[in-house]
Amino acid sequence: MTKKLLVIANWKMNPDSPGRAVRLAKEVEKGLRGVKNVSVVIAPPYPFLESAGRALKRAKLGAQDLFWQNVGPYTGEVSWRQLKHLKVKYVILGHSERRIHLGETDQVINKKIKAAIKAGFIPVLAVGEQKRMSNKKMHRALLRQLSGDLAGVSARAFRKGVIAYEPVWAIGTGLSATPRHAKKALGMIKEILAGLWKTKKVSTPVLYGGSVKAGNAAAFVSTKGGAMQGMLVGGASLKPKEFIGIVRNSSSINVK
Ligand code: PGA
Q1: Which residues contact 8 (CB under 8 A, 6 or more apart)?
Q2: How far is Cα 249 from Cα 251, in angstroms, rounded to an integer?
Q3: Could you tell me the sign of the dihedral formed by the alpha carbons of 146, 149, 152, 155, in that order?
Q4: Which one of 97, 104, 166, 181 is the catalytic residue?
Q5: Is 166 one of the annotated active-site residues of the chain?
Q6: 3-state DSSP: the chain helix, strand, coil percent, rounded to 5?
Q7: Which residues lie with the beta carbon below 6 Å from any ligand 1 atom?
Q8: Which residue in 215, 193, 214, 211 sits closest to 202, CA to CA?
Q9: Whose alpha carbon is nearest atom 9 of ligand 1?
Q10: From first to last of its 256 residues, what are the pLDDT tens digits of the chain?
Q11: What pTM was computed for the model?
């Protein structure tokens, strides 16, 4: 039995109006008809979570962040408690754009992961090296992020959690990593998690993210290619045809 693949649309700070967001959600929904082996998650920006979320039936709703307190004097933040009312199921945490532009540290991400788990959301923890580097340095970078972000989080607590491997140099550049590189990262991530959790078998799904398109998606999930368990998609998730292409091309690979 193969596990279902997971494809997550990270809309980031797009589109620019609620009308466009709802239209995009509806078009994606329509394209998912008949898709069987892939679970799809759409993560719109906060102001469109409710309206775009209402248009989703087959796809699940995701948020792009959360704050760890439930209510209180935290100007500009949105808490897990507030997201609970919006049908949110998944939360992307630790995205490199938040680490880089908002200065999010592994300690902050760790608090968010714990809050997401407590709230019953599925955390999607994004990690990845900044630039192209040697295997040794890449392993060190992944170890630093994973051990900081998951400090005090047991394998049991993270049993529904997902890791998204996103090399920063491949995000939004059009230059995706090779499936071979993704597979190497997958091996490192599984080995690091096994070490952190002192277990031999790590069943946490690992997704690939970074310039995924309809044309390269299948290679990341095929067992002969990247062998990843799905993808986190940015730019291409804003183009319904392209995004549906990603979902459909990877679903046909997974049919056994
Ligand atoms: P991209 O973004 O698909 O536009 O490269 C991926 C991401 O940042 O999640």
Answers
A1: 40, 41, 42, 43, 62, 90, 92, 124, 164, 207, 230, 231, 232, 233
A2: 6
A3: negative
A4: 166
A5: yes
A6: 45, 15, 40
A7: 10, 166, 171-172, 209-212, 232-236
A8: 193
A9: 234
A10: 457 999 999 999 999 999 999 999 999 999 999 998 899 999 999 999 999 999 999 999 999 999 999 999 999 999 999 999 999 999 999 999 999 999 999 999 999 999 999 999 999 999 999 999 999 999 999 999 999 999 999 999 999 999 999 999 999 999 999 999 999 999 999 999 999 999 999 999 999 999 999 999 999 999 999 999 999 999 999 999 999 999 999 988 755 4
A11: 0.97
- The angle formed by the CA atoms of residues 146, 148 and 153, to the nearest 5 degrees, is 80
Closest atom of ligand 1 relative to the 10 alpha carbon: 9
Nearest residue (by CA) to ligand 1, atom 3, is 234
